[in-house]
Each structure stands twice: as structure tokens, then as C-alpha cells.
Specification:
The protein is mostly helical. Helices cover 69% and strands 0% of the residues. Helix 10 runs parallel beside helix 14. GO terms for molecular function: GTPase activator activity; small GTPase binding.
Length: 216
């Protein structure tokens, strides 16, 4: 319903700040639900996930004013803890804090929670190895000696939707495209990075050099 040519052009040019959170919510297919009761149920539970969340709270956009005060940190804690309680099979993993903090900048707290649900449970299926390899054999061939490096770097790219590696204003445009186009937007960007660096990667002699090429 929302995939019109006009909306597609808007996404390509960059969604206006005032509309970003609302459109992300529409694109994701998320919905309001039981967030308040989930927050209530998760309060007071201490486990490995909550310990890891506490460690990462102040590492989430530490330079942004929204997370330099107790209010912002508390909202981030609720979203992450509620998700870990909802889905103990996934629980919490590093990168969720970065993603959730950006979602909170553009969406209401409950909406940010449902966006996180959509990303973790529906929009980021298994993307590595076969899916990437099949689409760009040349890039894969040059990375074969450095598969462990590609695995760690791609986790940073994909699980944070490039929020951890691109300038903020560029990264949120990537998120725009992700919520509109789905996983293919992230895969295409990752493949473009590999293709742009294919020559250097082919001549790299060790994992450290390959890592510098991909993160430099």
C-alpha cells in the first residue's frame, strides 16, 4: 500500500527528520501491543541478559544528548529488557543497544520496541554465507582467505544496520532504505563495499590488513 513511486523517491533522497520515525513504523509492519505489561513483567528480573544490557546502556550513542540523562537511559533499558523478556531465545546481544537507541530518537518508546521486534524477528533473516556469496562471487573469492574477518565485520555492518560504522546522518538514511526495501538494501550496500575494495582485498596478505581495508 505504501510502496508508491513517490514514497520510493522520498526514501532514496532521505526521509525528512519529522517523518522518519512514523514511516519506519509503517514500513516495518510492527504494531502496538503488550509493551506496558511486558515492561512490568520484566522489572526486577536479573539474569545474564540484564547484566549485559546494564553494561552497554552508556555505550549507546554516548555523545548524543538524549542518552546523557537518566530519562533516555531508562527508556533504552526498558526497551532492551522488555525485548529480552519477550524473546529469551535471542535475549540480548551487543548491537541491539545501538539500534534501539537510534530507534528511540525517531519513535515513541513502545513503537521503538516494536521496531526492534520487527528487525530482530522478521527483517534480518540469515544473511551471511550463501546469500552474500551467491550474489557477488568476485568479492567472495577475494575474501576467501579472510572469512573470519568478513564474518566479524559484516556482523557489525548488518546487525547495527551500518549505524556503528557510518556517519550518523548517512547511517539513518541506510535505515530508511532498510525499513522500506528490507534486507536487500543492507546486502546491496555490503556487497558494494566489498566490490569497491575488491582489488585491495585481493592483494591483502593477512586478516589485519583486510580488516583495515574494510573499516578504514
Amino acid at each position: 500500500m505504501f510502496r508508491t513511486e513517490k514514497i520510493q523517491k522520498l526514501v532514496a533522497m532521505g526521509i525528512p527528520e519529522s517523518l522518519r520515525g512514523e514511516l519506519w513504523m509503517i514500513f516495518s509492519g510492527s504494531h502496538e501491543g503488550y509493551y506496558a505489561s511486558l515492561v512490568q513483567k520484566s522489572m526486577g528480573h536479573n539474569n545474564l541478559a540484564t547484566e549485559e544490557i546494564e553494561r552497554d546502556l552508556h555505550r549507546s550513542l554516548p555523545d548524543h544528548p538524549a542518552f546523557q540523562n537518566p530519562t533516555g537511559i531508562a527508556a533504552l533499558r526498558r526497551v532492551l529488557t522488555a525485548y529480552a523478556h519477550r524473546n529469551p531465545k535471542i535475549g540480548y546481544c551487543q548491537s541491539m543497544n545501538i539500534l534501539a537507541s537510534v530507534l528511540l530518537l525517531y519513535a515513541k518508546e513502545e513503537d521503538a520496541f516494536w521496531l526492534l521486534v520487527a528487525v530482530c524477528e522478521r527483517m534480518l533473516p540469515d544473511y551471511f554465507n550463501r546469500r552474500v556469496i551467491g550474489k557477488e562471487p568476485r568479492s567472495f573469492i577475494c575474501m576467501q582467505p579472510h572469512l573470519s574477518t568478513l564474518s566479524s565485520v559484516s556482523l557489525s555492518w548488518f546487525l547495527t544496520l551500518f549505524l556503528s560504522v557510518l556517519p550518523f546522518h548517512s547511517a539513518v538514511c541506510v535505515v530508511d532504505c532498510f525499513f522500506f526495501h528490507g534486507i536487500k538494501a543492507i546486502l546491496q550496500l555490503g556487497l558494494a563495499v566489498l566490490e569497491a575494495n575488491a582489488a585491495e582485498l585481493s592483494s591483502s596478505t593477512d586478516d589485519g590488513q583486510a580488516l583495515m581495508i574494510l573499516t578504514g
